[in-house]
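ingest -> validate -> predict -> emit
validate: passed (alphabet ok, no gaps, 217 aa)
predict: started
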Amino acid sequence: MRYGFFTVLLPVLAAIVVLIAYQSWKSEMTSSATVRLTPAGYDLTYTVEWGWGMDEKFSLVREGEWLAGPSSGWMEIWKRPYNSGLALYRAVDDGTYYLGLGYKFFTFEPSTGVLKSDCNAEALPTRTPLGLRLLDLNLNRTEREAADPGAQDRFGYVEPDQGGPLPSAPPVSKYYTNLVYLGKFGLTRAKGRGGPAEFVPANKGAETRLGLEPFCG
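emit:
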């Protein structure tokens, strides 16, 4: 009887040990940062996961709720980790959020809780004259820097000392009409796989250059 008991108990204990080890590994291999979208009433979380490769996603949860809300789903980070990043904007007129992640852009309407993804660049707000100029394929990197000095790319590291909440008075976007720029998520600069995920608000970092443009092909 005793041997039968241990025969049943040992696999259970082994499964518990494996589960604990997996959860510990997953915690070590995952990093996230969260900001509160005010006055929308949602928390926005950006997450990066390391494993055989690297993946990123964002998710939204209404304030005070535990149930999972809409999410982008996992996207592979191409030539990682320096191609990670999420640009965040908000429309001036209706409060719709625009998010640039990976090769897509997303819109989120807080009033309905609906998140949509798109690869059609024509669905984005109208570009400003500077935005249109930078989209000109005849402009090389040197010309872009001359036309738009000091801007940062959506893809790339953020600095460890730049983190903070959403700005109370976000600036008008340089590249898209009727949008304000809120900030950017990314991995902090570090060797190897990159450092922890962080949010850099617009008052601590320059706007991402054309941060919503899709690259779906």
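Helices lie at 2-28, 129-135, 141-147.
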